Amino acid sequence: MRFGLAVTFLASSLATVSAFAPTQNTWGVVQKSLFSAVETEAVAEVAAVEEPVEANGVAAPGISGADIKARLEAQLEKLREKDSKSLKLSKEDIKVAFEDDHIVVVDKPAGVLCVSSKDGAPNLADAVCESFGCQMGRSDMMVVHRLGMDTSGLVVFAKTMDAVRGMNAIFRTRKIERKYEALVCGHVEKDEGMINLPLMRDYECPPFMRISTDEHQQALVGLESSEVGKKLLETPKESLTKYEVISREELDGNAVTRVSLTSISGRTHQLNVHLAAFGHPIVGDSTYGIDGDAVANGGLSDAELESLVGTPSRADEALQKSIASAAQGKSSVHAKSLKFRHPITKEDIELTADAPF
Q1: 133: alpha, beta or left, given left = phi > 0 and alpha = psi -120 to 50?
Q2: pTM, whole model, 2 decimals?
Q3: Where would I find the beta strands (DSSP E) of 31-110?
């Protein structure tokens, strides 16, 4: 069995790394490829898949393109239902971290969509446009990146077309540093390290992600892109996450760790999947955490976890269940900091926002 995966623990300090360019789609909107993607990283905001899948990460036998399509369509309907519960914000609700004539940076609360859903649910972009205005006259034109509905933290909006073009270039060329803060299950043993595990689209639980292995790649043989979409059949994406322990804490008597996270490669749901496979899922992650909607442990079996990750301190099932009960469905991940050069004024911008957990 060949995997080509690794987890590297670093004993010394690591250089600051840049973040990534965002994806451009949003949950709840069916694209031609059948997959809708939020801005990557750490979002857990999708409901359960109705058809059962094997919990050990082994491919369900005989899965067909029609099966995959049916599962996806059922899931997207549930995503639309969740989108409809997005909170409506007034100008007084919006916490501004920075504003000038070209951009506005706000501290997004959890429970709010960043952009409008297909059904026009309340969202942050509309609230920002109504409150601060923009040269383009349309909220969707202000969007240069996004966070998931359950993720809080810093989001940049452009107020002019020059700023849109400039910020898009900054994200595309990764000339921006973004860090996230999260609570994860259990006490992480090493103070810092890198998680290096390739990702693929999950054919058993679309539109989610999973750790890629040869066996799961082989399960895609024979599927047609005309039925399941090109994204599902893409080659595995190399994915690298840096973590640093901030503190080891307790949540209602349960061991949790506060970590700083940087998604170096910036794949869809990378932080969530990596931390689940690492054995320390994000607290309150109802998708990739315990009893979540995606396959457990990032799609890895117990044997694969032991051989590939080998994290002796990983949170066991009982601890994860107890933490999930204490979290009450509230995901604990926050876009903590941004550092970039202003696209117009060339001023160095460095912003932070405290996590609400």
Answers
A1: left
A2: 0.80
A3: 95-99, 103-108
